[in-house]
Amino acid sequence: MTRAGARRTTARRAQLFDELVALFLAEGFAHFTLDDIASRLRCSKSTLYALAENKDRLVHAVTVHFFRGATERVEAELAGSAGAEARIRTYLESVGRQLEPASPRFMEDMAATSVAREVYERNTRLAAERVRSLISEGVASGELRDVHAAFVADVVASVMVRIQQREVAAATGLADAQAYRELATLLTHGLTV
Asked: What ranges are recorded for DNA binding (predicted)?
């Protein structure tokens, strides 16, 4: 295959993953068969099999694609903010914005499907670690109260896990994106000097 052909193949794969993410975010995925997905994307099942060997692997790959893109966008937003409080707020609110397009059905399917849930859980752990590092930086610079960053991050991680497991939505009625905004407000007001 020529380089131009390889680039076209890579671009087509990325386009398919973007279309799959949009479809899954809007409508969920548990109820779809591979035939349904192929029909909706106007492609063949063999095209889908080129992306993943079965539906579970496809769901996993699409979920990874979604979170990889979300992480890149969150970090890009974070790069434009200065000050510890602003950076924490920007980070958590940006995480929430990345989840805004996700329909309740997508979130429920992700919580109920092990291959997708594992990806969400891993990304939740990474996000909690990122918050811990932002808190540590803020405490070290004197911009934030001297708190035990690991403890605060553990509390944040617990809330993030509850958001991910749909417990916050059930208890409060808040969508995941709204819950992240509320968490950002609570955390930054509690940490400022």
From this structure: 33-52
pLDDT in tens, 69-125: 999 999 999 998 899 989 999 999 898 889 889 898 998 899 899 999 999 989 988
Instruction: Give the angle subtended at the CA of 89 by the CAs of 190 and 98, to the nearest 5°.
Output: 135
User: What pairs with residue 144 in β-bridges?
Assistant: 192
Q: What pTM was computed for the model?
A: 0.85
**Residue 133 CB neighbour total at 10 angstroms:** 12
CB 113 within 8 A of CB 60: no
What does the domain layout of the chain look like in residue ranges?
3-191
In a 3-state reduction of DSSP, which class is residue 142?
Answer: coil
Please provide the CATH number assigned to the domain covering 3-191.
Answer: 1.10.357.10
155-183 average pLDDT score:
87
Q: CA torsion, points 100, 187, 121, 113, in degrees to nearest 10? A: -40
Q: Contact, 52 vs 93, CB < 8 A?
A: no
Counting every residue, how long is the chain? 193
Could you tell me if 87 and 133 are in contact, meaning their C-beta atoms sit under 8 angstroms apart?
no
